[in-house]
Amino acid sequence: MNKKQIIIWLLACFLITYHTLKIYTGLAETGNAGLIFSEGYYQNTVRLWIITSLLLVIMFKRLGVYSMWLSIFALVVIQYVLLPGNVNLAGYFGPLKGFIIPLIITWLFWRQGEQTASRLNVKHS
To answer: How far, CA to CA in Å, does 91 sit from each of 15, 21, 47, 79, 97?
Structure first.
């Protein structure tokens, strides 16, 4: 594994751990895992989708990156829908911080793919 692959792997593992803990704490706070039709249910479902996508990213599958972005956009939309009406301007930017690590993962993923492609297309004299 090269440096970029290791960084992708570490960041994806961090996000998997983060979203797993968010699901666990969300279920622990309700005290009743049977309450599936609540606000947290939709977020937890999307978080499971994010975890699955990140597992594909760890395996360096291109589908994982596309699925990761779709699921993150879905989570951000759900978070905006669930915002209370009396949030200040800074509160509206809160869900957007979820784009930072996926942007880094995507950039490294594509850079790593470009380098692999350029190595395969090198002509030997």
So the answer is: 22, 22, 21, 11, 11
The CB density around residue 112, as the number of other CB atoms within 10 Å, is 17
pLDDT by residue for the chain (125 residues), tens only, comes to 789 999 999 999 999 999 999 988 877 776 665 555 566 788 889 999 999 999 999 999 999 999 999 999 999 988 888 777 777 777 778 778 889 999 999 999 988 876 666 666 655 54
- CB distance 61 to 76 below 8 Å: no
Domain assignments of the chain as residue spans, ordered by start? 3-119
In the structure encoding, which two tokens stand for residue 39, read together? 């606000």
Question: Distance (Å, rounded) from C-alpha 120 to C-alpha 125?
Answer: 14
pTM, rounded to two decimals: 0.81
What are the C-alpha distances in Å from 38 to residues 6, 47, 71, 79?
Answer: 37, 15, 19, 13
